[in-house]
Every structure is written in structure tokens, then in C-alpha cells.
Write a structure and sequence with these properties.
By secondary structure, this protein is mainly α. It is 65% helix and 0% strand. The longest helix is centred in the middle third of the chain and has 22 residues, at 84-105.
């Protein structure tokens, strides 16, 4: 058997290293997934160890990357890093505004709500100003008093959490589908059919009737 291409082995090892670092995984974690010693895993990334296809598959699953990445047909997912400190500070202010709005809708003064909750009025005001973080369990108590769900205070659909929740929902729905339906959805050839289905779902009854009549005319 001819010798393996050392340049290709080094390139493949570099791709593995890049993916691991991209997702913040350690060599020790990847070695454990592959069932090899950390020293052997280091040789994989340097190109000195011949990695097998099942091992590449395991790494793809562990790092949540497409197999096509290893042969250059698909890139790594690039997501903007969040500034969590600023995000949390902003969310505290937004929740404070929402709290104030809901209190006014319920026709309760700051003093009345503070008294009902058996808390200091100044603390409640600092909540509404976004100056003081509201402990989650305390927020639950406030929600019960204002007759509103905690969901009212959640990040909206346009924020990072909203996008995260939408993605999680899509993944759960996909996993509940039958294997043949999953295969249909991920096949690029079927994109045109899905696009047509989407357009049909947006039509009213009259438009759908017109489409049906046109199909009948073509058939007959």
C-alpha cells in the first residue's frame, strides 16, 4: 500500500484543531470521545496519527459540525459572541420598564404594590428603574400579584434568547418527524417543493380555488 499523503494528514489535523478551538473544547475532552490517550489525540491534530472515518464522525457529533467541513464543502458555524454583561444590564432595565407598565395597567401605585408584597417601596422603585436586579423568585411573587405570566418579562422574539428558543423549538420538531420526512427536508433538491408549499399556505381560499381550477384545466 502506498504511503499516506503527509500534507493531507496535516491539513485534516489542522481542520480538527480549528474546530475544537472554535467551540472551546479541550484535547482531553476530544481524546475521551475517541477513546484514545491525550498524547495520541495530539498526534491527530499534528497529522502524525491516522484518524479513521468513525472517529471523524464522532468528532462531528461531539463538536456539532457537519461532516462536509472535513473535506472543505461546508464551513464552521460562525455566531456573533454576545456581550453578556451588557446584555444582562440591558435586560434588567427592560424588565424594570415592563414591571412599571404592568403595575400601572393594574392601577396600583408603587406604595400599594410594595405594601401588598411586604417590601420596601424604595427597593421596588429600584427594580422598576433597572438599578437593582429582581431575584427570579421575587419576580414570580410580583407576577402573581399583577396577574401576569413570567413569560411577559422574557426576551422577545427578536432578541438573542428569542432566536435561541426558536432554534431549540425547530430542532425538537425536526426530531419528532419520521425519518423519511427528515430526509425529505434536508435534501436540497426538495427546496423548490417546500417553497411552493409555503406560498400555498399563505394564499386565501379564493386564490387556492383558482390554482385548483388551473390544474384541472391542465389535466383535462
Amino acid at each position: 500500500m502506498s504511503e499516506l499523503n503527509p500534507e493531507r494528514a496535516k491539513m485534516l489535523g489542522g481542520l480538527i484543531e480549528k474546530a475544537r478551538e472554535h467551540f472551546g473544547r479541550t484535547k482531553k475532552e476530544c481524546a475521551a470521545v475517541l477513546g484514545v490517550k491525550p498524547a495520541e489525540y495530539s498526534k491527530i491534530e499534528s497529522g502524525a496519527y491516522s484518524v479513521s472515518l468513525p472517529q471523524l464522525e464522532a468528532l462531528a457529533l461531539f463538536l456539532n459540525i457537519p461532516m462536509g467541513y472535513f473535506w472543505g464543502s461546508e464551513p464552521l458555524k460562525s455566531e456573533d459572541e454576545l456581550d453578556f454583561a451588557n446584555l444582562i444590564a440591558l435586560r434588567h432595565r427592560v424588565i424594570g420598564v415592563l414591571l412599571s407598565q404592568q403595575r400601572l395597567r393594574s392601577r396600583q401605585s408603587l406604595a400599594d404594590l410594595a405594601e401588598t408584597l411586604d417590601m420596601d417601596e424604595a427597593l421596588l422603585k429600584s427594580y422598576e428603574m433597572g438599578e437593582e436586579p429582581i431575584p427570579y423568585l421575587h419576580l414570580e411573587q410580583i407576577c402573581r400579584q399583577l396577574d401576569v405570566s413570567v413569560n411577559y418579562f422574557l426576551d422577545d422574539v427578536h432578541g438573542p434568547l428569542g432566536r435561541h428558543e426558536a432554534k431549540q423549538k425547530l430542532e425538537r420538531q425536526f426530531q419528532r418527524m419520521a425519518p423519511d420526512m427528515q430526509a425529505f427536508l434536508i435534501n436540497p433538491v426538495n427546496v423548490s417543493y417546500l417553497d411552493t408549499a409555503k406560498k400555498l399556505s399563505e394564499m386565501d381560499v379564493a386564490q387556492l380555488r383558482q390554482v385548483a381550477e388551473s390544474l384541472l384545466e391542465i389535466t383535462y
